[in-house]
């Protein structure tokens, strides 16, 4: 099952790949739509606003390439939340089992 | 219980019905509000922005028919997230049971 | 524990109180800010957009009274999602127990 | 495990630190960007709209300092939702265990 493998991903790997994705997307959107996103910080601000699904609407892509990057970020953002929830549930189960076995 | 039946839905069916819904809604919104949504890709961009609850506000329906389609998408989007969480919890329980029984 | 009581709330009660809240808030916002929200459907559209946290930003309250209503809707929306997740987890646990005991 | 310690946080501490964070951030954004956020209530309205990820886009920071505060709020908001889900799952497990042991 794919779920088993996803839950087994170490936390540090999840942390560093998230940072890599955010930095990469921030850099890519500035290249793709430099007319809308002037600086790397503009890109970073937009990526974080998108991944957390806040979406103020002060910055958003208008080209097809930029929109595809946003769509990719939506899926990544929701996927990450799923993985984190999975890890919380799994961690709680392990912790409860230990509490039952002894203390 | 309805929950039992929902969790039993195979993953491939969930995947294809999601794609069908997104494509169908993208096509429908262009028909319903062609003054706001010029192309199928505009519709698709709006549907994905809505279902993931990002909601930039660059595109939104203004007619009653278009708004009802959006309201339907809200419920679908939240329902799908509920089903996915249910599947994660169920999958984790089965995986833990197998780990306990042997390995 | 308050959690126990919340999970015990029957589904039909949850359903009807949600509808009551949405209709009540839609009607109240039109009264509070008739300059922004012209019709009941405008109010309903805004309430649903807020409770689902999509938040397009086409309509939002500008008065203090209207903003307090929105703040109340935020808390209700997130609370409802918590209750639904609680019900899914509880329902899955009961279903698994039944599956273990016989089938 | 860090999860164990987070779940052990008493509810009243979680409640008061949330209020402290919201009030502190509301006050800080007015100081950082007084041209956008005129009153404390404006700041409070923006903080709540951000933490709940509604994000209407009527108010958003434009300076680097204000944006960093927003980024901090995103992480806090999502972290809090994770803790609340963890507490619901843990509370349900304790409640089920008690129900099994006697009633
Ligand atoms: K949003
Ligand atoms: K938004």
Report on this model:
4 copies of one chain form a homotetramer. Chain A has helices at residues 2-8, 11-32, 40-51, 64-101. In chain A, helix 2 packs antiparallel against helix 4. Chain A has a single domain (2-97), classed as Helix Hairpins. In chain A, 77% of the residues lie in helices and 0% in strands. With 103 residues, chain A is mainly alpha-helical. The structure holds potassium ion (K) (2 copies). One potassium ion sits between chains A (53-55) and B (53-55).
Secondary structure blueprint with pairings:
Four copies of one chain form a homotetramer.
Chain A: H1 2-8, H2 11-32, H3 40-51, H4 64-101
Helix pairs in contact in A: 2-3, 2-4
The complex binds potassium ion (2 copies).
Short descriptors:
homotetramer; 103 residues; mainly alpha; Helix Hairpins; 4 helices; binds potassium ion
Q: Structural class, from secondary structure content of chain A? A: mainly alpha
> Treating each run of at least 4 consecutive H or I residues as one helix, how many helices of chain A?
4
Percent strand of chain A equals under 5%
Order of helices and strands of chain A: HHHH
Largest interface: A-B, 25 and 20 residues
| CATH topological fold name of chain A | Helix Hairpins
Number of domains of chain A: 1
Q: Please state the average pLDDT score of chain A.
A: 84
Rounded to the nearest angstrom, the distance between the terminal CA atoms of chain A is 32 Å
Per DSSP E runs of 2 or more residues, the count of β-strands of chain A stands at 0
In terms of quaternary structure, what is this?
A: homotetramer
């Amino acid at each position: 099952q794919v779920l088993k493998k996803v839950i087994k991903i170490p936390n540090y790997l999840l942390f560093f790949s998230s940072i890599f994705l955010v930095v990469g997307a921030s850099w890519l959107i500035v290249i793709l739509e430099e007319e809308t996103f002037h600086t790397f910080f503009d890109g970073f601000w937009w990526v974080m606003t998108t991944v957390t699904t806040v979406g103020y609407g002060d910055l958003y892509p208008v080209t097809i390439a930029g929109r595809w990057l946003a769509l990719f970020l939506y899926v990544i953002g929701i996927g990450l939340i799923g993985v984190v929830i999975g890890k919380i549930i799994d961690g709680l189960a392990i912790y409860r089992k230990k509490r039952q076995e002894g203390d």
